[in-house]
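Reply to dn_fold:

You asked what the input looked like. This is it:
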Amino acid sequence: MRRCGCVRPNELLENYFKKIKHLERRRSGRKNLTQDLEHLPASAALVHNLKDAKYVSIVCGSLDNLAKAFAQLDQEEQSRRQKGLPSTPTDNLERVLRISTSSLSTADRRIVRTDEMDRRIKNAAKSRAPRLRISG
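and this is what came back:
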């Protein structure tokens, strides 16, 4: 069977993940990276994009402005917290939920790790606590 000149749809992602695993394996010296990759935040993969000048120019203009861009994100997040609004990123919540349910039995994980349960937990996490009125 002869291959056409086209690229498989996920080949770029596979190669990118392979590169991340290779670098992590060199850093840690371990063959089994399961635990290391589970604890690695999803945003860590974006660090590799800082080598691309086009990406940097879109995100913050130049590497000199990178600290300022992160400071602005922190300021926006702090402003949201002061107003009592939920944090914007929920990726961390998903990671925490996966780690916290890892000790459950297989049967329980099948129930807990569903899209419906994730939706319920996210909605609860995003909702504000009810205010109690104390009459006196």
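Residues 11-28 form the longest helix (18 residues).
Hope that clears it up.
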